[in-house]
Amino acid sequence: METFLAIVFFSLVAYGLWYFNSPSFKGSVGERRVNSTLERHLPEGYRVFADLTLPSLGGTTQVDHVVVSRFGVFVIETKNMQGWIFGSADQASWTQTIYGRKTRFQNPLRQNFKHVKAIQEALGVDKRRIHNLVVFAGSAEPKSPMPSDVCWNVRGLAHSILTRQEVLFNDSEVAAISEKLARGDFQTTKDAKRAHIQHVKKAANTCPKCGSALVLRANKRTGSEFFGCSQFPKCKGTRLAK
């Protein structure tokens, strides 16, 4: 009996360690921190929306945060990461370095551009009135020159939003946009999250150019792995390996 209880105990501990270090848990912690900070530090007249699900390219896309004000619609991608970050606005992927270990991830500004497009289409708003912002909510530090639309702590995000003072919407437009985002069809329910995850998994296994299956390949020069189109060389579509 004692052996069984010990096995159960260590299994629960192992699961807890795995869960609290999982990307999904870290992501949700970062998103809650951003949401709390925005609601505390943005004055009246700014409406904060979190975890929205919008239609996009035959499926759905999830948007971490949207802030609506007279000074524009702010679409925010949250990254709860550690280590050193290298990248630039025009690079397709950025690099995270922790204790010498390098991991590539999609340029979050490009990733968030998909969210910007979804917001633009859902609201019928000109893209010039939408701001694409990224915030690193963890302890990550930039180790290369970064675009000004990337913030390195949550208070810096609030400050970046407040520095935009060009009036782009009147009060009635702000109210109409806020009312639309507050509707139930944009809120992330369990069913919507499940459908979104299935859509993401399916998209991750298909070529972004032609829709064929992807296969794991390795760069002959660097040794880094990536997913390449099974129709290569006819199609040269690729995705980063997670």
Give the topology.
Layout: H1 2-20, H2 23-41, E1 47-56, E2 59-69, E3 72-79, E4 84-86, E5 93-98, E6 101-106, H3 108-123, E7 130-136, E8 141-142, E9 150-151, H4 154-163, H5 171-182, H6 190-204, E10 214-218, E11 225-229, E12 238-240
Parallel strand pairs: 3-7, 4-8, 7-9
Antiparallel strand pairs: 1-2, 2-3, 4-5, 5-6, 10-11, 11-12
Helix pairs in contact: 2-4
**CATH level 1 name:** Alpha Beta
* Beta strands, count: 12
N to C succession of SSEs: HHEEEEEEHEEEHHHEEE
CATH topology: Trna Endonuclease, Chain: A, domain 1
Lateral arrangement of strands in the main beta sheet: 1-2-3-7-9
Query: Largest beta sheet, briefly?
Result: 5 strands, mixed
Radius of gyration, taken over Cα atoms and rounded to an integer in Å: 20 Å
Counted by DSSP, the helix tally is: 6
Mean pLDDT level: 81
Reported CATH architecture: 3-Layer(aba) Sandwich
What is the beta-strand fraction?
25-35%
Form type: globular
Q: Pick out the low-confidence regions.
A: 13-27, 195-201
Distance between the amino and carboxyl termini: 41 Å
Structural class: alpha/beta
User: Percent helix among the residues?
Assistant: 25-40%
